[in-house]
Specification:
about 325 residues, alpha/beta, Rossmann fold, 8 strands, binds S-adenosylmethionine
């Protein structure tokens, strides 16, 4: 298959299945090995030239080069620069270069490269799938939803259009300001039942309150599993009925590709990406009395996102 930004494997949903196979969605055997397929926050740092180089390079050379990659050292340096840990690095990134980068990816303008365009498509599929998972259970009018790590409002806005009472927060003040701007532009606030989401600058660990539904999309990728456990537990404590989480799935295949991606940090790379195994996420949920009811997977060429809907046991 030609290396392009086309969707090679459509996302699919399935009900909770004990015999879960963490393999990526089915892919024709004839397909050439994919080039570096970094998870969401790594991918935009890889430009087309790099991809072409990776695509044509030998696996052995890549394997050798992998041993020289030291993302942990890079992360430590970044953390020292902003005087903190993962969270401070992430906050700083999404208030500065990451804000510009992701605003573009989540937007509709043409100034995106092939990879960014593909991620835009993948991410919009995730949002679509979340909306489907949520509305499958009934209309959203009047349902309280917390969108934790709301970014530019890609989910908060469609939720509000459906009449949900949305609280949207993010660790990045720049993201929250953009989300509110877009919500004011896109929502028909004169329409009955359509409310402006309540926007708040906050890291999700500090959120309080109770919501029917809590959603946290493509945020866990910025944190190691040790931190993700606590984040998942806290998000579950805010939710009365449903918790939807998306994360970059950890499988051997994605892990190798992510490591290849880490060999080519773009100039503006400022965060580390962490993959999470579905089993680890499930275990973290179980620990606080939640079980996974539905699962979905969005895969495009450069975007991989596992979506789970959890409910109290
Ligand atoms: C890849 S973006 C996803 C944005 C949004 N959820 C979406 O899917 O459109 C990740 C977002 O998570 C936010 N974020 C990262 N760590 C966070 C934390 N600890 N608490 C709240 N937001 C966080 C970032 O500022 C950024 O806006």
């Amino acid at each position: 298959m030609a290396f392009s930004a086309s969707i090679s494997s459509p996302l699919h949903f399935r009900n909770s299945n004990p015999i879960f196979s963490p393999k990526p969605a089915t892919r024709p055997a004839s397909l050439k090995p994919r080039p570096a397929l970094p998870p969401p926050s790594l991918a935009p740092d890889v430009d087309s030239a790099t991809i072409a180089a990776i695509g044509s390079g030998s696996v052995a050379a890549l394997a050798a080069a992998l041993s020289f990659a030291d993302p942990e050292r890079r992360r430590k340096l970044q953390a020292e620069e902003v005087g903190g840990g993962d969270k401070e690095v992430v906050r700083d990134y999404f208030n500065k270069s990451g804000f510009e980068r992701w605003k573009k990816i989540y937007g509709e303008t043409d100034d995106v490269n092939t990879v960014q365009k593909d991620i835009r498509l993948g991410h919009s599929k995730t949002v679509e799938n979340v909306m489907k998972m949520l509305t499958d259970e009934g209309p959203l009018a009047g349902v309280s939803v917390c969108d934790a790590g709301c970014g530019t409002g890609c989910l908060a806005i469609p939720l509000a259009k459906e009449g949900a009472v949305v609280t949207a927060s993010d660790i990045s003040a720049a993201m929250v300001a953009e989300a509110e701007k877009q919500a004011r532009e896109q929502l028909d606030l004169g329409k009955e039942g359509v409310l402006l989401p309540k926007f708040e600058v906050s890291d999700l660990e500090s959120l309080g309150g109770k919501y029917d539904t809590v959603v946290c999309l493509d945020v866990l990728i910025h944190y190691p599993q040790s931190k993700a456990d606590g984040m998942i537990a806290h998000l579950a404590s805010l939710a009365e009925n449903r918790l939807l989480l998306s994360f970059a799935p950890k499988t051997l295949y994605y892990d190798i590709l992510k490591r290849i991606g880490e060999l080519f940090p773009g100039p503006s790379k400022a965060t580390r990406a962490y993959l999470h195994s579905e089993a680890d996420v499930e275990r973290a949920l179980k620990k606080v009395g939640w079980r996974i009811r539905k699962r979905g997977l969005t895969t495009t060429q450069f975007y991989f996102s596992r979506l789970v809907e959890a409910v109290p046991m």
